[in-house]
Amino acid sequence: MDAIALFCALAAQRGKVSARHYSNYAAYGHLITAGLVTETGVVESVLCDECDQPHDAQVVYENGQYGYYCPDLGFMPMDRSGLTAAKPDFAKFVAALAKALNCQRRKTSPVLGETWRIGAIDTHGGDLVIYMHPTLQHAQDIEAVATALGKEMNTRFCLILTACGALSVEGVKTALLTDVVTFDVVSGDLNVLVDLPVIVDAPVKRKGGRPSNFQTPLHELILERQNSGAALSGRNAEAKAVLAEFIEKYPNIHPPSHPTVKRYITNI
After folding, report:
1. What is the pLDDT of residues 144-162, one digit of tens each?
2. Helix (H) or strand (E) holding 100
3. Residue 208 falls inside a structural domain
4. Range with the lowest mean pLDDT among 21-35, 129-143, 212-226?
5. Is 56 within 8 Å of 45 (Cβ atoms)?
6. Nearest 5°: CA angle at 53, between 51 and 55?
7. Which residues contact 240 (CB under 8 A, 6 or more apart)?
8. 244: left (phi > 0), else alpha (psi -120 to 50), else beta?
9. Residue predicted with more confidence, 191 or 60
10. Which of 140, 142, 175 is nearest to 161 (CA)?
């Protein structure tokens, strides 16, 4: 599981989760180091699977010992290290994403509830304002986002990023974070994989200059792999395969970076 997928898995649970279930992933340590996930206190409940009928049990602290009560077995002590809680730091994640996008009109606290404004970027057709909400899975999520946006200034283009869910908000485009963002484990920064104005059908500002030498062969190579059925289902795995094939096939052309290949794959 990569870092953004792990962040989304935590965010989708809307609260504290057990760090023990995720700490074996290398990505977990990277997110902790970057401050995008924090460990805080202990979890509120655990699953008791010691008795005949597994059940959820509230964590308590009694006589200097953490544990929980089981109706059949009584008090069941637990070591605190197995109860450590973790949660996403949305404020730091939003700030990191705003930095990656070079946003204007950033906001360091939620607009309302769990709806965050990441900021605005320019397009040829006007501002694109980008928001984030943990999930778009239920009617309550849609209502919460709509209420929050009602407190914001109207804009022609609006995009909501989310960790989980495909429900849409009227008049607003939505996208999954895993399709838009990647995490650089070396720098601890977020990188954007796609041109967000394209997602909302905004006019794209064309950059001047000569196209990159790898642009045409990379585009053709990705399409060739997709049309032949050789393309892998995971974007990370496919990007590695494409990059290796590019280097072998075009040894005289300076190869693109791994994030660039992922961005091309996503756009195609």
Report:
1. 999 999 999 888 899 999 9
2. helix 90-101
3. no
4. 212-226
5. yes
6. 95
7. 258
8. alpha
9. 191
10. 175
Same domain, 27 and 97: no
With contact defined as beta carbons under 8 Å apart, do 116 and 132 qualify? Answer: yes
| Two tokens, residue 35 | 């401050």
- Note the pTM of the prediction, 2 decimals: 0.71
| One domain, residues 140 and 221 | no
CB 172 within 8 A of CB 91: no
Sign of the CA dihedral running 242, 247, 252, 255: positive
Tell me if 222 is assigned to some domain.
yes
Is the confidence at residue 65, as pLDDT, over 90? no
Q: Are 153 and 124 in contact (CB under 8 A)?
A: no
Residue 206 in domain: no
Q: Residue 187: give the domain boundaries.
A: 91-199
Q: Are 101 and 121 in contact (CB under 8 A)?
A: yes
Number of neighbouring beta carbons within 10 Å of residue 178: 19
The sheet with strand 17-18 has its strands ordered as: 17-18, 84-88, 37-42
Which position has the token pair 């700030």? Answer: 95
By CB neighbour count within 10 A (0-12 exposed, 13-18 middle, 19+ buried), where does 192 fall? middle
